[in-house]
Amino acid sequence: MKKSFVFATLAAILFTGCTGQPEITGNWTCSEIIIDGNLITGAKAEIIIEQINKYDFTFRGNSGVNSLSGTVTVNKNIFKPWDNFASTKMMGEPVAQTFEDNFLICLMKADSCKMEDENTIIIENSVTGNKLKLIKN
Fold first, then answer.
1. Nearest Cα to 70, choosing from 80, 58, 52?
2. Cα–Cα distance between 137 and 134 in angstroms, integer?
3. How would DSSP label each residue in the chain?
4. Neighbouring residues of 26: CB distance < 8 A, sequence distance ≥ 6
5. Could you tell me the sign of the dihedral formed by the alpha carbons of 12, 14, 24, 70, in that order?
6. End-to-end CA, the chain
7. Which of 18, 27, 44, 126 sits at 20 to 30 Å (Cα–Cα) from 1?
8. Best CA proximity match to 107, nearest among 83, 76, 137
C-alpha cells in the first residue's frame, strides 16, 4: 500500500512537472521590445497576469501610457491573444507613446511564448521575430 502511494505521488509530480506549460502568472515589467530587428527601449509596461483556467490568462496593467486589459490563451509554447483586448487612448510623452504602440502591436500579433529562465518570458511572433521580453517583478 505504501509503495503504491509513493509511486502514485511520484508519477503525479513527474506528469505535472513535464507538461511544458510556462508559469506566467504574476507581476511583470517589459522594458525591451524587438521590432524588425530594432531594440525599442525608453519606457516600460507593467503587466499583471492572472490565470483564469488551465490555459487562459488575463493581462492587465499599463502598457507605457495607457491602461490595457485582455485575455490570452497559452498552451505550452503557443500564445494566442483574444479579440477582447482594450486600452485607454490618452496621449503621452512621444517615447512612451512609441513604446506603447510597439508593445501592443507585438502583443496582439504574438503566436509563441517561452520561459527564458524562471524570471523571464519571451513573447514572440515566430514569423517576424518581433518579441517582448517580460521580467518578473
1. 58
2. 9
3. -HHHHHHHHHHHHHHHHTS------EEEEEEEEEETTEEE-SS-EEEEEEESSSSEEEEEEESSSSEEEEEEEEETTEEEE-TT-EE------HHHHHHHHHHHHHHHH--EEEEEETTEEEEE-TTT--EEEEEE-
4. 48, 49, 136, 137
5. negative
6. 44
7. 18
8. 83
Cell numbers 521580467 label which residue?
A: 135
Predicted TM-score of the model (pTM): 0.82
**Cell numbers 492587465 label which residue?**
60
d(CA 1, CA 20): 31
How far is Cα 52 from Cα 41, in angstroms, rounded to an integer? 31
Which amino acid type is present at position 96?
Answer: A
> Over the stretch 24-80, which tens digit does the pLDDT of each residue have?
999 999 999 999 999 999 899 999 999 999 999 999 999 999 999 999 999 999 999
